[in-house]
Amino acid sequence: MFSSLPLRACCFRRRGLTLVELLVVIAIIGLLLALTVPAVQSAREAARRMRCGANVKQVALAIHAYHTSHGALPRSICNRNLNHPHVFDATTKRYSATAWTLGRPDTWCVELLPWLEQGILFDAFDFTKKVGDTTTSATKPVSNALLARTVLPIFICPSDVWSAKPLFRNRCSGGTGTSEGHGLWYAGSMGPHHVRGSCPLCPTNAAWGSSPTPSRTNPCCNGTPGVANHLGLDGYTQGFFANHPVPISFDDVRDGLSNTVLLGETLPYETAHNGVYVPSFATVLLSTPINLFASPQEIVPDGQHDSPAGAAAEHRVNGIKSRHPGGAMVVLADGSVALLSEEISFPVLWSLGTRKLGSRDVAQPVLK
């Protein structure tokens, strides 16, 4: 007969982590998170940047298709409501304002809809009425005002926090009767030139005189001095889009399509002049450094069309910019997409913005 032996107490005792061991585990977990989270964020941003590049690429291909069909690029405004296309003043280098019918949804973006698989939306618009018009008819049963609330992801950069709310209440109306409109993240290049008669961001350089003064020899603000119509040299934009209804052709490019910016990414929250449906020119300047962000005082309030900071802010709010780290997306006229670094030099940026003056612009010395 066996006697029962007492079981050792150690058989029932469970050993837990000491405080030091617990702190080590927490430190290891924290280190892993510190290594993992940035990698995940970087991977997500890379995916968003690829999607952004695909979007702007499709818009560029649509522009090429439009050019093939029409022999020129769409105008910034008045593609279907330019009443007198030959009313041009040789002295002021501008089309008479009486030649425009502003406020209609005939923007360059809307003109591309048939080539962006949005032909049904294009056909639904009534181009004889303003964007904010709420009336309907038997042939146009949906109002322009309702159609203009259609969100088009192809014109939106997913890296911007405002991409989730693409309808803004501070769009330049162009006579639409409403300031609400779809923001545009990919705007047409106006090239390097002045706004409202000056360019406060141009560096001082004796080679072309007083830097903010527009002139034929000023590569930062190519333009005709004294002409406040923002058109650029001799009434024509140095890029592909103007603030007047002037059609530009790829045949006008002398610098090479692969050396000229067609579209540039921007942040519509910072400017009221970029909209998909709202006729507000939808352009960017290449006389502004990449990723020059607007200050809170320069943001256009709801219901207002221009920056409260005045003309100087126009250059800051209307430049090429994005929420991609280190640069912003552009598409060149040959359809290739690139991320322009925010470290790019001014002369190279000016050269990329011009259709005919690139070699001369780069040759100009710059004093920083």
Structure description:
The chain has seven helices and nine strands; from the N terminus they run H-E-E-H-H-H-E-E-E-E-E-H-E-E-H-H. It is 24% helix and 8% strand. The chain has a five-stranded mixed sheet, covered by helices on one side. A two-stranded antiparallel sheet has the order 1-2. It has one domain (51-363). The chain is α+β, with helices and mostly antiparallel strands and 368 residues long. The model is unreliable at 225-235 and 358-368 (pLDDT under 50). The protein has helices spanning 19-70, 108-111, 119-124, 144-147, 311-317, 346-353, 358-363; strands at residues 88-89, 94-95, 167-168, 181-182, 186-189, 261-265, 283-284, 327-332, 337-341.
Salient structural properties:
368 residues, alpha+beta, five-stranded mixed β-sheet, two-stranded antiparallel ribbon, 7 helices, 9 strands, 8% strand, disordered C terminus
How do you describe this structure in short?
With 368 residues, the protein is of the alpha+beta class. It has seven helices and nine strands. 45% of the residues are buried.
The structural domain count equals 1
Please give the share of residues in helix: 10-25%
Largest beta-sheet details: 5 strands, mixed
Mean pLDDT: 80
**Continuous helix count:** 7
Output the strand order for the largest sheet: 7-5-6-8-9
Percentage beta strand:
5-15%
Alpha-carbon distance between the termini? Answer: 102 Å
Question: SSE order in H/E notation?
Answer: HEEHHHEEEEEHEEHH
Instruction: From the alpha carbons, calculate the radius of gyration and give it in angstroms.
Output: 27 Å
Residue windows where pLDDT falls under 50 for at least 5 positions: 225-235, 358-368
Shape descriptor: globular
Please count the beta strands (DSSP E, at least 2 residues each).
9
Structural class: alpha+beta
